[in-house]
Amino acid sequence: MIIFGGRQTSALLAVLYFQCVFCHAQAAQRLIRTRTWFTLFFLPIFPFGRGNHSVHCAYCGNSSAVSRENADRFVADAHAQHAHMAGPPQPAHLPR
User: Fold this and answer.
1) pTM of the model
2) Which of 37, 62, 79, 87 could be bridged to 44 by S-S, CB 3.0 to 4.6 A?
3) pLDDT at residue 14, rounded to an integer
4) Distance between CA atoms of 77 and 96, rounded to whole angstroms?
């Protein structure tokens, strides 16, 4: 007897802070990728396709679908925003 099926997994790809289109609050917007995996004996073997991307508001919980191109742009903007918020590296203070 062979047991096979499918399972969905979700992964957080990036977080950006901007105004939600649903609740109009300035809040964290999370980019999530959901993929369906082929399973054999309840173990994930390989994914089907590239997955679906969606943006979820941390304030109101609403979500909207995002294309792959916009998801890639979202990840790049999140890296740039994180680097900007971190600021320039500070010199280490060494004891004398």
Assistant:
1) 0.75
2) 37
3) 93
4) 41
* Contact (CB, 8 A) for 44 and 9: yes
Give 75's contacts (C-beta < 8 A, 6+ positions apart).
Answer: 13, 14, 31
- Give the side-chain half-sphere CA count within 13 A for 24: 0
In whole angstroms, give the CA distance from residue 44 to residue 68. 23
Rounded distance, CA 84 to CA 96, Å?
32
Contact (Cβ atoms closer than 8 angstroms) between residue 20 and residue 60: yes
CA torsion sign for 37, 61, 69, 18 is negative
